């Protein structure tokens, strides 16, 4: 086996940025049939929780270490949000332009992209697509302040909780990541045509079972 090498050329990788956010409200069948662009997205903070250690002891030794179930949460920050997010944020339109809060919050899917870079290609090395399923948004604080000599735009923020969806061959999950540097380029383009839509077909979010047809498991 070759000797290990650290920080070799093209191996100095990093991840940065967030862009191309898409919101997919969930319908009554559990699908995500219509995506809309999320402009003004500034940050997505993924916050997994759970998977906590629960040690068991027997015969005066540590016998086993059980882990609690893991959950996926996130926080979205943005300067604005699509009109279609209103019902996901507990708002409903009483009549055109008249919005009522404290309504039932609708579940949704979210897709966004982060940049992959290295020491040679910089930010052009690749990217990751992040898919979040069955998310619900908690009520968020909105702080309005007077315009002054240091003007700032209001930043909205929402905490997300998720419910895992079925993943063929694996345990249910709420988050999937696709790495452009590791998957087939043509299949990635096919996935992006689904996620972002085109002139004829509206954007939608495929469930994990459909993703598996695009990126099948390779034996061996």
Which descriptors apply to this entry?
2 helices; 44% strand; eight-stranded antiparallel beta sheet; mainly beta; 220 residues; two-stranded antiparallel sheet
Shape verdict: globular
The description of the largest β-sheet is: 8 strands, antiparallel
Helix count from the secondary structure assignment:
2
Overall strand count = 16
Distance between the termini: 21 Å
Radius of gyration, in Å, reads: 21 Å
Question: Could you state the order of secondary-structure elements as H and E?
Answer: EEEEEEEEEEEEEEEEHH
**Average residue pLDDT:** 92
Instruction: Report the sheet-strand fraction.
Output: 35-45%
Task: Name the poorly predicted regions.
Answer: none
Proportion of helical residues: under 10%
Structural class by SSE content: mainly beta
Structural commentary:
- The chain is mainly beta.
- The chain is built from 2 helices and 16 strands.
- Strands 1, 2, 3, 8, 11, 12, 13 and 16 form an 8-stranded antiparallel β-sheet that branches.
- A hairpin with a 2-residue loop joins strand 14 and strand 15.
- It is globular and about 65 Å long.
- The two termini are 21 Å apart.
SSE blueprint:
Layout: E1 14-25, E2 36-38, E3 41-46, E4 49-50, E5 53-58, E6 61-67, E7 70-71, E8 73-78, E9 92-95, E10 98-100, E11 108-118, E12 122-137, E13 156-162, E14 165-167, E15 170-173, E16 175-179, H1 185-196, H2 208-214
Antiparallel strand pairs: 1-2, 1-11, 3-8, 4-7, 5-6, 8-13, 9-10, 11-12, 12-13, 12-16, 14-15
């Amino acid at each position: 086996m070759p000797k290990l090498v650290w920080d070799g050329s093209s191996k100095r990788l990093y991840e940065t940025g967030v862009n191309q956010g898409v919101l997919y409200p969930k319908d009554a069948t559990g699908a995500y049939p219509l995506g809309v662009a999320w402009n003004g997205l500034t940050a997505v903070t993924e916050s997994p929780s759970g998977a906590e250690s629960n040690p068991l002891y027997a015969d005066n030794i540590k016998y086993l270490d059980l882990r609690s179930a893991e959950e996926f949460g996130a926080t979205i920050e943005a300067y604005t949000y699509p009109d279609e997010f209103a019902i996901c944020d507990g708002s409903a339109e009483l009549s055109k332009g008249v919005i009522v809060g404290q309504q039932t919050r609708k579940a949704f899917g979210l897709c966004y992209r982060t940049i992959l870079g290295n020491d040679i290609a910089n930010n052009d090395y690749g990217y990751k697509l992040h898919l979040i399923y069955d998310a619900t948004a908690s009520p968020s604080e909105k702080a309005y302040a007077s315009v002054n000599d240091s003007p700032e735009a209001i930043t909205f923020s929402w905490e997300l909780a998720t419910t895992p969806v079925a993943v063929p061959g694996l345990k249910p999950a709420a988050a999937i990541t696709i790495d452009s540097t590791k998957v087939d380029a043509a299949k990635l383009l096919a996935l992006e045509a689904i996620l972002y839509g085109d002139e004829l077909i509206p954007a939608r979010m495929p469930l994990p079972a459909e993703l598996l047809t695009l990126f099948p498991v390779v034996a061996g």
